[in-house]
Amino acid sequence: MTSMFDQYNKTLKRDESSVKSSAVTPTSSGYISVRMSQEAPIFGKLKMNISMPHVINHLVVSNGWLMLVMANNVVFRMQLVDINRSDEVALEKYTAGQEISRVFLDPLGAHLLIALVPKSTQFVPELLYLHRSQSKPKRIDKFRDHEITCVAFNYENDSETSTGAILLGTSRGLIFEVELAVESDKVVHNNWKQLPNYLPLYGSRDDEGLVFDIGRNENIPITGIEYFRVPNTSEYIVLATSVDRFYKFQETIKSDDRQPLQSIFNSYLNVPEDIQDFHEIKSVAKGKTTKLRVCYDYKSHFPRSFGWITEPCIFYGEMDAKSDSPARMVHNKRIPFPENEKNAPVAFALTDFHAILVYPDHLTAISLLNYQVVYEEFISENLGPLQNAVRDYRENVIYVYSTKVIFRIRVTNEERNVWQIYLEKGEFDRALRYAKDNPAHLDIVLCKQAEQCFNRKEFIESARLFAETKSSFEGICLKFLEINENEALMIFLRKRLEGLKAQDKSQITMLVVWMVELFLTEMARRGDSQEQVRVLQRDFDVFMNTPRVVECMKTNRSVIYDLMASHGDAHNLATFTAVNRDFENVVNQHIALGKFLEALNVLRGQNRPELFYKYAPILMENIPAETIAAAMAQGKRLDPVKLLPTLIVLESDVHVTEIIRYLEYCVHLLGCSETAIHNFLIKLYAQNRSEKLMIFLETQGKDVSMIHYDVHYALRVCRQHNVAEACVFLQCLLEMWHQAVELALTVNTKLAQHTASMAPDRDLRRKLWLRIAEHEIRGREDVKEALELLQECDLLRIEDLLPFFSDFERIDHFKEAICDALKEYNLKIQEQRRDMDESAKSAEKVRAELQSFRNRSVTISASDQCTICSAALLVRPFFVFPCGHKFHEDCLEKHLAPLLGAEAAQRLSGLKLRLSMLGAGEGDAQNAREALKEEIQSIVAADCCFCGELTIETIDKPFISDWERVRNDWE
After folding, report:
1. Mean of the per-residue pLDDT values for the chain?
2. What is the per-residue pLDDT for 807?
3. Which residue, among 223, 229, 104, has the nearest Cα to 157 in the 3D structure?
4. CA 160 to chain centre
5. Is 214 within 8 Å of 240 (Cβ atoms)?
6. DSSP-assigned letters across all residues of 516-573
7. Residue 471 clears pLDDT 80, i.e. is over it
8. Distance (Å, rounded) from C-alpha 422 to C-alpha 431?
9. Angle ∠(650,651,653) on CA atoms, nearest 5
10. Is the four-CA dihedral 550, 553, 555, 557 of positive or negative sign?
11. How many CB atoms lie within 10 A of CB 587?
12. Where residue 385 falls among pLDDT bands split at 50, 70, 90?
């Protein structure tokens, strides 16, 4: 097989100089391992430059604060980031007859608890509390006579003045809940409570009832205790250890519980020991002290793991707040100490993947995954024996101290080999998680996992994994070809195809062609199973529609065509042409297979009207309803006129129905105004749906200039198909009234009467009605029915109808009609006489009034004033009105101007202008001036401006129009 990729099949070399960091590297990984420098060890110690004048007995570190207790009973406090912030607190007067057994520091580094034990029976155990801001410790009287052996601080507490709720374990197996706070240099203990016993069999009673006693009434001390809350819940977990037992208590607490920690233990009351949640590890040396450590993660506010060190081993477990298990604890196991160690360590510290074991003369770090020693270093005897290891979880730093010095343990990339350990254990998911940042390691893990899947005959998963590696392309392909696993091979090829870059065109082309060949071969081979073929076809369709494949097809279309044709796969050939938007070829393929609906669907999905015009004839012939629906869905993208050649050749009833539906859609919804469309629709109506023709014609209107069909063509078609009513309508449009009435008479009289009534001219209407009367009267014996025409049309009289009757008709038949006509004439004559009499009286009255006006006069005295300006009336030309009002001519004109209409005001202005332009000459000029004056006076003095009609018409106008000016005048 020809190689498609240039790869270097190299083997990663083992770095012998790296301690415990070798990797199993399968061949053909595709990577070259070159280590330019020695890797730093995972663990290393650094001696802190702190010189103590006395032996160090105890040391605790939290939140960057270091506090140690020296042999002279002095507490030395120092902030590590600022060594100048340090002080000493003397404890001599508090420790008389006693010695300091243990010290406890909260996660904030603010609250220090000091446990005292007596040196003789004259004294009792006590507990001291020292706040970081105080220089003197305070005794906690409530804990007098109780030796405190362990403290569970609240990791979520963020107050430096209060510890929050904490748990304290004693040397007698009792647990207390309390909250310590500093108020005005005083120590206050709130909610002090001795927890109830959950084992009444081993419990004891005191004044407050049953007490919590892990010591089982044997004074077995509590060696460790921790508690924490599951994030985003109200679920609490308490871990507690004695000399030989590990306990876990778990409970969901109510939000209003005032003592939440005490409530954790309530559900364990009266629980038999055999069903308790504890682990027991018997120790050979009963007096050996055990320790409990948790690896707390301040980012998630939940421990990653816990460790309980005993004489035989380390009991270790991982914790997961998101675990499906309600216990939240996973992968519990017992980790043995190194084989070369004869004694148990005096202390230990937990990291994410290792445990640092502290022996008096050396340090040993073992992997928590494969239990191998990864670090070991001995301490000089001159520095004193090592005592303990503490970890500052907020600063993520580990400190180990002896009686004389303090070491800071440096942790460098401790997860570097975790992926390899998980790989060797076959835990591939975890191996991948820790190898994802290193491509070479990731490739090794994937290769090994893929090989394992292949050996298990899990070929699909194996192909998927191999595709993500840098393994030899040819080798992997041969693996699957040799066992005839085409399906897995296709998955491998597809994944590799997805990983290629756009510029790798030749490789992309070869993979695409190979994939097509494999798909077609598999579908042909599994032809007997329709379900399998259906699944393969679905996958093939998805493959063909991926952007990379579509792009490849644009330049290799002919190769794929030939390949599909060689397999005789018409369906996929059509699909392929669709992917490449070769719509014409797609439609041809569907039509060749008689799949007209599929061809129509292709036309629906593209925006090329020319293809629709091309294939519409054959589609219309075979699936008319669907074709018309598709054409209507195209809307205005299709030109109906271009579809006419397709429509006019189809004459079956089914085709006609669908064609009419499309033409109606074009006319009524698209608003098509093409004459050809309207004419064709009229033809189809006249030929097949005559009942719809009149409705269509009437909706088009009766204005010839506004209709879109050819009236003459429509009339010719209607005559050809004998649609008389439509012919009448069209003849009316063409003003062929006589022909229309004649044709209407052949249908029915009502239509003829309606047609005659529409004639625009009165004389024409009368002639048409006379023709209708003649048609109705001649040859009819029922004179009464013939005479009813007189009531249908007011243009006809009895005398108009008489010539149409036979000369032998009896007068009795017309008696009633003639009498009615004579009565009507008589009434009209009397009405005209009354009108003449009223006209004569009115004329007489007018003559009398004119006569009275001739003798009427108005007397003007010298004291008369103008009604408008109140000046003497006689000083200027004036007008006197019959109502008695008198006005100067200019005052009247000025007052009247705003009341005139626009036309009258414009005319008055024009007359005055023409008058001013005429001179005071003789003859014609003088006559013209007089005529203009008379016309001006006819406008100005037409009526009294106070009581005439003009004033009455302006009664709704306001008296004041410029209110702003009036307001300013008043102010």
Report:
1. 81
2. 47
3. 229
4. 45
5. yes
6. HHHHHHHHHHTTT-HHHHHHHHHHHHHHHTSHHHHHHHHHSHHHHHHHHHHHT-HHHH
7. yes
8. 5
9. 120
10. negative
11. 28
12. very high
Instruction: Determine the Cα–Cα distance for residues 867 and 708; give it in Å rounded to an integer.
Output: 69
* 56 SS3 class: strand
**Whole-angstrom distance, CA of residue 92 vs CA of residue 69:** 12
What pLDDT, in 10s, does the model give residues 328-351? Answer: 887 789 999 998 888 889 999 999
Burial of 601 (0-12, 13-18, 19+ CB in 10 A): middle
- Indicate the pLDDT class of residue 789, thresholds 50, 70 and 90: low
User: Nearest 5°: phi and psi at 184?
Assistant: 55, 50
pLDDT in tens, 210-243: 344 565 566 788 999 999 999 988 889 999 998 8
Average pLDDT over residues 570-591: 71
Q: Which of 160, 152, 40, 144 is nearest to 98 (CA)?
A: 144
CB 936 within 8 A of CB 908: yes
In whole angstroms, what is the distance from residue 223 CA to residue 245 CA?
10
Residue 489: closest CA among 514, 510, 525, 471: 514
Cα R_g (the chain), whole angstroms: 59
Rounded average pLDDT over 578-584: 68
How many residues are present in the chain? 971
Cβ–Cβ under 8 Å, residues 243 and 288: yes
Q: Evaluate if pTM is beyond 0.70.
A: no
Whole-angstrom Cα distance, residue 703 to residue 701? 6
Identity (one letter) of the amino acid at 654? V
Cα–chain center distance at 323: 31
Structural contact between residues 107 and 155, judged by C-beta atoms closer than 8 angstroms? yes
Query: Contacts from 909-916 at CB under 8 Å and sequence distance 24+?
Result: 911/935, 911/936, 911/939, 912/936
- List pLDDT tens digits, range 493-513: 888 888 888 888 888 888 888
| Residues 434, 436, 440: CA angle, nearest 5 degrees | 105
Mean pLDDT, residues 129-138 taken together: 91
Between CA 154 and CA 175 the distance in angstroms is 15
What is the residue whose two structure tokens read 């033809």?
683
Asked whether 107 and 157 are in contact (CB, 8 A), the reply is yes
Q: Please state the rounded mean pLDDT for residues 195-217.
A: 46
pLDDT at 77 (0 to 100): 93
Closest CA to 77 of 92, 93, 60, 102: 60
Backbone angles phi, psi at 183, to 5 degrees: -135, 110
Among residues 166, 226, 208, which one has the least CA distance to residue 191? 166
